[in-house]
């Protein structure tokens, strides 16, 4: 159970406060409701590049990191296809420094040309390090456009190509800031050894006079239902063949999300899971096999990926994956197995409450989903899923015409 | 109106309270340490075994034994072990490091009486079935073939081998060594190493009396050992600071790893060297990051670290940089080291690093498990809690002159081994 209080400033900034007196630390987490899905198709990778620029100095404070480190704090951020999330942890006695820094960069950035030039290079190196200079690193650069034809999930957070990042200009940066970085588009969570009244006072003091700008309306093209199986084959300098199979599945806020998540656990969570047990251990077809969800806000993907052992043909490997998926469709999962994945889910939720930062991030994310209090009913939603719902969900997801398959073959 | 150009006032961290480990000795001599704290009704229980009897003839023996512990006992198959652990929402993991082999259970307290007996079986009655060993060998070789395509992985492997030679610390994993593994080797190592005399148990979280009673029942007098143990002991030659270059013509980036054998935690210079390392490459605002990432844009990340092991410590700097700027990046690293050795750090910068390190230490004590990690750091280095008092005092009081002297003593560019995998510009 993660308790919290909530208030909203006149300019539209939502603030959640989670008091946890067991720690001497404080967390300030700000989620901006903007991600790679909000990018222009000709300027992909921009939300993430912009995240880097948020550390390049703000209108009144030339360096973001230096004053924070000086008070014993640390920070980082991440960008996904859906959101951009910034967080600070610091000794609670120095909480006001976090308010000072975060409010100034919400007010306005410095928009330094030097920062843009350097961060274009840094992000290009990140692109190379994570996507181009790694075996199988570019898989998602290929899978996304295969699975999505309409929705902007068809490009990865890092962007479609290095060129989009290299072409970014300071005017683009300013326009992006103006559109997305304002109080009504943000959710702030303050947690740890903090008091509600003090957080209210500091929020008014530092964020209260940031001008309100209406929340930008999102109007993304919905992905049209897929009607036939898609297949792509690539060859690359990798040591092993690999297969990636993705299916469209319900959005994060859809009731069907929970049964789909449990299906991925039945297939792939822990050493007792079906793919590991049957395909890797017993049938000895794969050296590595996993299933998971992208978990995105709009309709996401159910992913199965594996590396067949040498001598195992792609046809055999793929047939074995289908046999496992078909089994979830044709047979009701046993009470024992369903209880197992639910128990694991329940204990995972308890473990996640041991981290202050995790709690703060989760509160912000669930507030974005609609109501932070839903974080506390999450376990109950998993526990309520029936074997019949799992079967029905599997039947709806695991259809050939709903699948995209990437064969990633060794040269 | 508030003046946003003025930073709010702030304070330095004054007190850092550590939850101290409570020692308990069981009937068979097994050492148990309990670190109790937290609201969530769960515990982490670690069974930590010293690595022993290393021989270059069987380099994977200890690692394979540890990794295959959950692959079957005389009573339970690997799938039965997995089923039980997963059914109770627990996590059972094995971890192999240079000095130790561990088995760690994360469990809700309410299920401990079902999950802990599985750990007992695993550490006292594993049988290493041949069919599981075959699977292990096959899959490990596949994973290795993928890792060998990663420049960063290769650079680490070469670096360890250059520094630590023909010892466990320096072992350079080869596919053919997997083929040489046999059940006999694993059973031999299992019976030598996995006994109470070679084990330390650390329990952290919401530790209840019931949990301690259960530990005593399962791992106390009923767990027999008694075999002679020969702990690993390694010596290392001073390297000659050479360049070790592996060319990858297709590389977009080069992995760089520079470093040398150095002091470990038991040495009185260790805390001061950690301050020095933080300034150089130990945090986001470090000189290496400020120069090579934030000024030049040569890399996504660069860092340095001082690592403490039982028989040695080592210092290293690592990054992946654009292939076309590889030589420039190395030149800049060299410059930063020379500056550390010739110029005193300013009061401004040192003040920042002091506060950063104290805040970071405080923030690193999030729950009983992180307090347990702090305990393990000192316990396995043969140190007491006064180490942390001394560490905090050093961070608060070390002078620019002392840092300059440490840089001269420990950071000789000519002595650093320089591993580069990728392309030099």
Helix proportion range of chain A: 40-55%
Give the proportion of residues in helices of chain B: 40-55%
Give me the number of helical elements of chain A. Answer: 15
Structural class of the helix and strand makeup of chain B? alpha+beta
Helix and strand run of chain A:
EEEHHEEHHHHHEHEEHHEEHHHHHE
Q: Count the domains of chain A.
A: 2
Low-confidence stretches of chain A: none
Question: Mind telling me the CATH class of the largest domain in chain B?
Answer: Alpha Beta
User: In which order are the strands of the major sheet of chain B placed?
Assistant: 1-2-6-3-5-4
Pfam families (chain B): Peptidase_M16_C
GO molecular function (chain B): metal ion binding
InterPro entries (chain B): Metalloenz_LuxS/M16, MPP/UQCRC_Complex, Peptidase_M16_C
Domain Peptidase M16 C-terminal (chain B): 180-355
Name the features.
heterodimer; A: 411 residues; alpha+beta; Cytochrome Bc1 Complex, Chain A, domain 1; 6-stranded mixed sheet; 5-stranded mixed sheet; globular; B: 425 residues; 2 domains; 42% helix
Write structural notes for this entry.
- The complex is a heterodimer of chains A (411) and B (425).
- By secondary structure, chain A is α+β, with helices and mostly antiparallel strands.
- Chain A has 2 domains: 5-208, Cytochrome Bc1 Complex, Chain A, domain 1; 230-410, Cytochrome Bc1 Complex, Chain A, domain 1, CATH 3.30.830.
- Chain A has helices at 46-53, 65-70, 95-107, 113-132, 139-147, 162-166, 170-180, 196-207, 256-268, 274-282, 314-330, 335-352, 356-369, 378-383, 387-397; strands at residues 5-8, 14-19, 25-32, 74-79, 84-91, 186-192, 230-236, 242-249, 286-293, 300-308, 403-410.
- In chain A, the strands form 2 sheets. Chain A has a 6-stranded mixed sheet, sandwiched between helices. In chain A, strands 7-11-8-10-9 form a 5-stranded mixed sheet, sandwiched between helices.
- In chain A, α3 packs parallel to α8 and α9 (256-268) packs across α15 (387-397).
- By secondary structure, chain B is of the alpha+beta class.
- Chain B folds into 2 domains: 22-219, Cytochrome Bc1 Complex, Chain A, domain 1 (2-Layer Sandwich); 243-422, Cytochrome Bc1 Complex, Chain A, domain 1, CATH 3.30.830.10.
- Helix content of chain B is 42%, strand content 19%.
- A 6-stranded mixed sheet of chain B has the order 1-2-6-3-5-4, with helices on both faces. A 5-stranded mixed sheet of chain B has the order 7-11-8-10-9, sandwiched between helices.
- In chain B, β4 (91-96) and β5 form a beta hairpin.
- The mean pLDDT of chain B is 94.
